[in-house]
Amino acid sequence: MGKLVVLTLLGASLALIGERLLTFRERFSSTREIKSTEPQHCHLIEGLENGSEDIDILPSGLAFISTGLKYPGMPNFAPDKPGRIFLMDLNEQNPKAQALKISDGFDKESLNPHGISTFVDKDNTVYLYVVNHPHMDSTVEIFKFEEQQRSLIHLKTITHELLKSVNDIVVVGPEQFYATRDHYFTSYFLVLLEMFMDFQWTYVLFYSPREVKVVAQGFSSANGITISLDQKYVYVADVMAKNIHVLKKHDNWNLTQEKVIQLETLVDNLTVDPATGDILAGCHPNPSKILVYNPEDPPGSEVLRIQDTLSDKPRVSTLYINNGSVLQGSSVASVYHGKMLIGTVFHKALYCEL
User: Fold this and answer.
1) Are the CB atoms for 196 and 241 separated by under 8 Å?
2) Burial degree of 269 (CB within 10 A; 0-12, 13-18, 19+)
3) Distance between CA atoms of 57 and 347, rounded to whole angstroms?
4) What was the pLDDT predicted at 6?
5) Domains of the chain by start residue, with CATH
6) pLDDT tens per residue, range 54-75
7) Separation of alpha carbons 43 and 63, rounded Å
8) What angle do CA 283, 232, 228 make, to 5 degrees?
9) Rounded distance, CA 127 to CA 155, Å?
């Protein structure tokens, strides 16, 4: 009887491992054939060589870009350089990227920026919220943007026990934001185990000075997050599950699931087209090439537009896809008046006219 129990448990364990292995391989498959779809008028942005992980564009056309992310398991072309925040004015005929100065009193050498989000106050003061990983920890930094000086004034560092493995952020009020946790564990080995076993222990949290709480959970890896133009829905990318969750926002800041939009690619950061309300998603069409990076066979890039988000059949179209010959590891795309910026986890950034 004891041998039968042992054999049964062994068989069940092997079956589970086999199922997990097949699922893991399917998620990170590199066999997908990529046929390039690229706007005719695109060029790489000078000065952005070490990633452009997230991009947020103000209604005025000023675009903030986070660069230099150091993230466990991801390639990095400048491991000894701190991260930086760049600015582009998309109203210019040939916009250039300019690194913003950061005020004294902030440890610039420890800046390791991930997701970013802007907030414009009633008096038109612009604040930039930055997910930061100093020494591989997680904080949220609040900066005030000084447009004339092209500089950032550091105001506050936010820490909390729920702000662990933070990936992205969307600001919804003064010192109020939603943020995603993309991994439960912090050890790289345990993160790999978590990805392999698909524990679904990651979540979305809400932060305010009065209250911090988990408002949505059960994600394989909660990644990019943004909010609809009418502020009624929050969109969350579950990168490992290849989908986007549409969550309804309630008066108490809690979120409830409205629907899930399943895709065929790993979805990273999300933005909303200010003209149409469509979702733009920066995606990874062959993610295993990021985990095992080979410059001779680089990871590709993909940008999707999702229209009619709340309908029974949302429409998904491809704005950009490349096999890595131009742009590697796309993480975000953002548009403004017919212009599109595409950022990457560790590579370059692209400017396109649609």
Assistant:
1) no
2) buried
3) 20
4) 44
5) 32-353 (2.120.10.30)
6) 999 999 999 999 999 999 888 9
7) 17
8) 30
9) 9
Q: Which pair of structure tokens corresponds to residue 235? A: 């969109």
CA distance 158 to 156: 6
How many Å apart are CA 91 and CA 53, to the nearest integer? 22
Residue with tokens 């009619």: 308
> pTM of the prediction?
0.93
Q: State the angle between helix axes of 2-27 and 188-197 in degrees (0 to 180), rounded to the nearest 10.
A: 100
Place of tokens 């604040």: 127
Q: How many helices (H) and strands (E) does the chain have?
A: 3, 25
- Decide if 302 contacts 343 (C-beta within 8 A): no
Q: Which residue has the higher pLDDT, 338 or 30?
A: 338
Which residues does the annotation mark as catalytic? 114
Which of 72, 192, 82 has the alpha carbon at shortest distance from 134? 82
Does residue 44 surpass a pLDDT of 80? yes
